[in-house]
Design brief:
This protein is of the alpha/beta class and 380 residues long. It has 11 helices and 17 strands. It is an enzyme of class 1 (oxidoreductase).
Length: 380
């Protein structure tokens, strides 16, 4: 065990004291891991739209002060009681969802939505005792989705930590903890395009580009990008997207435009925006008889999906997915190996890098729509 095992660690963390206000680098105390928990030394982390969304307090029940962050790579510092599959020194990726390996979902080959550890944005404490492991001056600081990686050290449930190949560069594979796996898996695990097929990707942010990368790896012959921002089209070419449609450029529904382009519709579509209209368009643009549409984006709570039942009767299929249908502990190590074997590319997703002391720049880049992923380098 490490020489800090069982002891409180004092370290730097980027604390969100108020909604929408710049993070403040503070010295915080991180308690030792308890039963079924691990304490991690974070080496690299990245900013995701989900962090920004809840930092702006657009989610319900905002909890502050809070430590955000859920895309990261690090090393196990110490383990709590009952943890046998991880040990100090292991290279790991913490994940916003989990895999307890005991519930019906974890035992199912078809689901990755763990009953115990699926994402919970409202909970700011640990499952074991309902307390936080972060504090400053004796006052608690809340966790975020069980990861809180904007800290030099963090504590997670063992079920939300994937052990990976120690040879994998953590400054690259850390982006697999959330958005990239979500998009890539939506294509390769759920849409499953065949070689030579046509695929439409709705939304060309990080998740949509990852979905396009999945189509490229699957050797789709046509990858059509759909986005309201034409500035994204040039970047998308790096991910195999060769045709582009901006719905604002047409006076008819985009699903009709795509149907005309593809002689009746695409073989597969993946929706990565959260817009209910994009979801409907993504479904209605697939070919009858065999077309499959996959929904990835998270809609507003009052949205309703409306389409004519004949679209289903004509043998179009609509699916949804969560985290690309990957089980974090079982499947993520294999995705890392895909990168190591050059079967997928990650470097092109990483457009910026900043030291931890300048983490607020990562927020500025994302809010300005600049780049895809910004890596934050810890300064231990």
């Amino acid at each position: 065990m490490s020489n800090t095992a069982g002891k409180v660690i004092k370290c730097k963390a980027a604390v969100a004291w108020e909604a929408g206000k710049p993070l403040v680098i503070e010295e915080v105390e991180v308690a030792p891991p308890q039963k079924h928990e691990v304490r991690l030394k974070i080496l690299f982390t990245a900013l995701c739209h989900t962090d920004v969304y809840f930092w702006e307090a657009k989610g319900q029940n905002p909890l502050f002060p809070r430590i955000f962050g859920h895309e990261a790579g690090g090393i196990v510092e110490s383990v709590g009681e009952g943890v046998t599959e991880l040990q100090p020194g292991d290279h790991v990726l913490p994940v916003f969802t989990g895999e307890c390996k005991e519930c019906a979902h974890c035992k199912s080959e078809e689901s990755n939505m763990c009953d115990l550890l699926r994402i919970n944005t409202d909970r700011g404490t640990m499952l074991n005792d309902g307390q936080t492991r972060f504090s400053k001056d004796g006052k608690p600081i809340y966790h975020f989705v069980g990861t809180s990686t904007f800290s030099e050290y963090t504590v997670s449930h063992v079920g939300s930590v994937a052990k990976i190949n120690p040879a994998a560069p953590l400054d690259k594979v850390c982006v697999l903890s959330c958005g990239i796996c979500t998009g890539f898996g939506a294509t390769v695990n759920v849409a499953k395009p065949k070689k030579g097929s046509s695929v439409a990707i709705f939304g060309l942010g990080a998740v949509g580009l990852a979905a396009a990368e999945g189509a490229r790896v699957s050797r789709a012959s046509r990858i059509i990008g759909v986005d309201l921002n034409s500035n994204r089209f040039e970047e998308a070419k790096k991910f195999g997207v060769s045709e582009f449609v901006n719905p604002k450029d047409h006076n008819k529904p985009v699903q009709e435009v795509i149907a005309e382009m593809t002689n009746g519709g695409v073989d597969r579509s993946v929706e990565c925006t959260g817009s209910i209209q994009a979801m409907i368009s993504a479904f209605e643009c697939v070919h009858d008889g065999w077309g499959v549409a996959v929904l990835v984006g998270v809609p507003s709570k009052d949205d309703a999906f409306k389409t004519h039942p004949m679209n289903f009767l004509n043998e179009r299929t609509l699916k949804g997915t969560f985290y690309g249908n990957y089980k974090p502990r079982s499947d993520l190590p294999g995705v890392v190996e895909k990168y190591m074997n050059k079967e997928m590319e990650l470097d092109k997703f990483i457009t910026h890098s900043v030291p931890f002391s300048e983490i607020n720049k990562a927020f500025e880049y994302m809010l300005a729509g600049e780049g895809i992923r910004c890596i934050v380098r810890m300064e231990h």
